[in-house]
Design a protein that fits this description.
alpha+beta, 6-stranded mixed sheet, 37 helices
Length: about 1000
Amino acid sequence: MKSYDKINNLTGWLCAILTTTVYIITTDRFTSWWDTGEFIASAYKLQIVHQPGAPLFLIIQNIFSNFALGDVSKVAYWMNIGSAVCSGLTILFLFWTITALTRKIFIGRRETPSTWTIIQMMLAGVIGALAYGFTDTFWYSAVESEVYAMSSLCTAVVFWLILKWERRSAEPDANRWLILIAYIMGLSIGVHLLNLLTIPAIALVVYFKKNKHITWNGTVKSLAIGVMVLALILWGVIQYSIRMAAAFDVFFVNQLGLGFGSGIVFFFLLLVGGIIWGIRYSVKLNKPILNVSLLSLSFICFGYLSYAMIAIRAHADPALNNNSPDNIYAFLGYLNREQYGKEPLLKGQTFDAQVTEVTPTETYKRGTKKYEKIDGVSQYTYDNEMLFPRLYSEKHADYYRSYLGLATNERPTFSDNLNFFIRYQLGNMYTRYFFWNFAGRQNDEQNYGGYSEGNWISGLKSIDNRFVGGQTDLPESMYANPSRNVYYLLPLLIGVVGLIWHFRKDKRFASIVALLFFFTGAAIVIYLNQTPVQPRERDYAYAGSFYAFSIWIGLGVLGLMDFLSRKFSLKISTITSGLVCLLAAPVLLISENWDDHDRSGRSLARDMAYNYLTSCEPNAILFTYADNDTFPLWYLQEVEGIRTDVRIVNLSYLQSHWYVRQLSNQVNDAAPVKLNFDTAKLAEGVRDYMPFVDRGIENYVHLDSLLAFLLSDNPTNQVSVQKGRMLSYLPAKKIEMAVDKQAVIKHHVVPSNWSDYVVDKMKWDYPQNHVSRAELSLLSIVLTNNWERPIYFTNYTPTNLMAGLDKYIVDEGIVRKLMPVELPDRQEGQMMANVEKLYEHATQNFRWGKYGLLNFVDTDSRRMMENFIYPDVYAQTTQLLKQQGDMERAKAVAVKAVDILPKRKYSLNEALTYTDIVDTLYKTGEIDLANQVVKRNVGFVSDYLDYAESLARDKPDALDVRKIRFSLAALEMYNIILEDTNERELYTQVNEAFTYYREKYISK
């Protein structure tokens, strides 16, 4: 057995080293999109990330940051390597898990396996572990600094440990493995909660091991106990322990007059004392189950103490201090994710339901000397509620109706509810992801229900035509897209063989793996209860389910061996099945997935952050809106120290009381943001929502007077709502603000040649029917600033969130500057543009890294370029320069625009956006370059229109009228442009294409 153990350990470590090496080679060198910028910035300085936090992850990533040896440009890379190492270790424990399961089937506890048995077991472990290592979802998380790689490691360790306990359960000290599992679970809370979903499977392992006679009744009871333990940790330990500590503190402070925190200390001592007494009691009376349970609870709590970092660092009030959880009630709200709201699970409203009753609740906030009562989250009763609600979001009513075929006034039924759950939540938001990993993936586009974006495919035309259609005329741009990964169903089939073989050989542990598969897959779907049209794909949430299925891929090797051994020798069947499965799973997966998972050349997230910051003048205030125009900027400032004088203000966060308070903090080199009011006016529970009440005021109201009215505590300036509660309100929507022209000129707010256009008063209409902290604070900042600091908005920020100030916004590319000017030639509804700044940024200041040289560009980067860079910077600048007759500079911008085009063609949007750039190239003599772009884009559009026809033949409901019109508009524009050139041959080709497709689709 020693030789087996050595081989098992060595082979497992080789798998881990191989996958870790692959991950390090392909990992991001900087930050990437979404949450990674926030995580890297927060880990580097141990700051507070968004709810519910990940303190242990941040601490460990901080350790990895030290390997950069002071080179701040390498910090992100080393944190990404941290995820790569965690992912490699996950593969190690998956390998050992698979070999442990095969060992239970092949050999007894003390038997010595034969050489060929060892080879079979090692092959199963290698193929199953490497297959998972190179799956789409797992590889994606392995190369960026996000919590999911470390969370997967926790899951892998826990499941391996329960198998370790199962083998040693008869030994006197076997329960140490259960206690270690509890500790890992406690630690995992500080990473992500997904690991807790292994508990029901663990409960089943314990039941099967401790009972010789297995019954359905006993199995159900053990599962129920597992679910109860899961609930105890999820709600009891994580939430209600803090809730009880808060209740104790309120009593000690408000009733006994003691200091803040006294009740928390008492509760903590009471909890510790109770557990110690219980452990002593269990030893004294020889109650082993109680003893193990209390010790496990102790270690869960001990692991959970990683959250002390959140409370400690929140008291230091760092630059990134999300939710500012520096007191017990703020900490409780942080853990409960109160900022994000909650989805109904057991019973709830339908999307068309009307509120019939509002039940207010109360909570507390920390005051100066006592805890003060404030309004909590109100409870609503609706006129249409149902069990297991899936159609609950009013914001998505139109999508629900379209998806389910409901008429305008038709109310959804419970059948519609289940239909949406099965088809969309289980089908689109889980099964699609599952097949991505084991059957194939169409592309990396976001899927919104269409047939050409983000579906699963197999690479087998007959099957793919049945599900997505259009495979007979698949354009080269789709067929050769690196994110089109086809596995021909092979990993899936191997896994199914493994599943069947496992149930035939060992029903008990096959049931345990199946339970793990369910709880980390379908059960998450039920719990998350996701609404449609998510901002990004959510496959990372189900990585644990794909982990469980990969166990069966490993066992599928043995299933194939069993089948072949009926006709061939042991040697031939072992070698053949091993080679076939190795090629059909890990080798196929790595060969298909490498090109679109290699992030080593990507830098656009960092480049965009750099471009945003360098677009701002010194000491600017930059308003951002979402993750991708905020988190990379945080990374660049907090880690690399670039443009730390720019104060970033996120409008989404500005709706929160804690964020308004933090405006008065100095952040790095950025001065505090001035407000004309005490932030206590917008404290928690105060002015959360201020409705518009029409008072018939037709004249413009001065902004300072309006803010004074909104911030007034005088009941005459408020409106009475339910139960006599007084509420501040907005009495008028027409706003004006006097402009200090001297301050505008002094601080160089406007270009020198625009000084004559500075207005005496800014006048605008407020666009919304309510005011939140965000709008009130924004207006106060603008008023109080008095043009001392430049104020910008990212081009990512919707204009409807600018409180009507978009009338005075001047486009400078990817930022838009607030200027009190009215240009004489401005058309109604047209945004003003500073052409000089646009030209300077487009040709000199902006960095795009290797964007134009990459073999593959990810969808988030493409979306940023196609929606915000090509149109807002390059197309607009060439158009404006041509209007001014400045053809030389227009040419420079157009040439630069072509230089940053990706090597591959991806988008109809890109084809249409570049029409003006092509026109500029022709008019400035860059004929070859213009022809190159025309051929590229016209070919792409023609291919798409052929594909659309083929797709419509297979799927009549798939004809996308919007895309057809988009395509025809692009062809028409190129046709018009070429008509005025000497490129007659190319013009004839484009004209014929335009005429052909117009007649084909318009006639239809």
